[in-house]
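ESCALATION

Customer reports they have been waiting on this structure for their group meeting. Please prioritize. Original submission:
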Amino acid sequence: MNLNKYNLTAIIPGTLTDEQVKEIQEKIVAAVKNLNGEIKETAEAARKRLAFVIKKNRNGVYLDLVLELAEDAVKELEKSLKLIPEVLRAQIEKVAPDFTLAPKKPEYVFRPRNKEEQKEELLTAEPAMADKKISMEDLDKKLDEILGEEMSK
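Update from on-call: job pushed to the front of the queue and completed.
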């Protein structure tokens, strides 16, 4: 049987705990093994803010796996992934035989905060520019600079 190398990326809801993420990852691995596939590499799950809302989820966990699977079993794997209710989206793409996963850093890490943490962030934030006082002389000088530059153009 001729096995090809594939990269599987699945997105699951970001509201799940790390234990629940591991359980779903195990379900995906079991689906691959049921089709006589082999997992070659697994990346650490990355929590990110999604570009758009998927099934009422604003944040997601990306699961990346490199696997070897027969070409005719890919369609069956796609069907199996659709049967896992926690999988919001899944993409399977054929890759080169020497393909490996690069370590990914999450662009945005979603962390629910309580009201006290939010209040503390607001109190420690730097004051806005509107709070800073500017003298009239400084304002006149800046206006003269701006107008002088535009007059010379």
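Sent to customer with the following note: Residues 3-94 form a domain with the Alpha-Beta Plaits fold (CATH 3.30.70.60).
Escalation resolved.
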